[in-house]
C-alpha cells in the first residue's frame, strides 16, 4: 500500500501538468442591448454563438434581427468563435444591436 500512494500522487501530478489552467473553466459574459443586460456562463472552449439565441429570447427579440459585436468585431453565427479565440475575460461585454435595414437619404 505504501508504494501505491506515491505512484498515484505522481500520476495526478502528471495529469495536472497536462491540463492547462483556465481552459475548461467557465467565464461569465454579459450581453447588453438598449440599456438592458443579461449574463451568461460559457466554457472558454464553447462556441459564442450559443449566446445569440439565448440573448434574443431574454430581450424578447427575434434572433435574426440582432447583431452582436465584441471589442468592435462583428460576431457572426456562422463563425466558430470561442471565448478563448476572442481573448475574452470573465465579465466582458458583448454588444447587441438591431440589424439596420436600408438607409436614410
In short:
By secondary structure, the protein is α+β, with helices and mostly antiparallel strands. It contains two helices and five strands.
Topology:
Elements: H1 4-18, E1 26-33, E2 36-43, H2 50-58, E3 66-70, E4 73-75, E5 93-98
Parallel strand pairs: 1-5
Antiparallel strand pairs: 1-2, 3-4, 3-5
Description:
It is globular and about 45 Å long. Helices cover 23% and strands 29% of the residues. With 105 residues, it is α+β, with helices and mostly antiparallel strands. 10% of the residues are buried. The longest helix has 15 residues, at 4-18. A 5-stranded mixed sheet has the order 2-1-5-3-4, covered by helices on one side. It has a single domain (24-98), classed as Roll (Ubiquitin-like (UB roll)), CATH 3.10.20.90. It has helices at 4-18, 50-58, and strands at residues 26-33, 36-43, 66-70, 73-75, 93-98. The termini are far apart.
Amino acid at each position: 500500500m505504501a508504494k501505491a500512494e506515491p505512484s498515484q500522487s505522481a500520476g495526478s501530478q502528471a495529469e495536472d501538468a497536462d491540463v492547462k489552467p483556465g481552459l475548461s473553466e467557465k467565464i461569465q459574459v454579459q450581453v447588453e442591448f438598449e440599456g438592458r443586460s443579461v449574463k451568461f456562463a460559457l466554457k472558454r472552449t464553447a462556441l459564442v454563438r450559443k449566446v445569440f439565441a439565448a440573448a434574443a429570447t431574454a430581450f424578447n427579440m427575434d434572433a435574426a434581427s440582432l447583431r452582436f459585436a465584441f471589442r468592435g468585431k462583428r460576431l457572426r453565427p456562422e463563425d466558430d468563435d470561442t471565448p478563448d479565440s476572442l481573448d475574452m475575460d470573465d465579465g466582458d461585454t458583448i454588444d447587441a444591436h438591431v440589424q439596420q435595414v436600408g438607409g436614410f437619404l
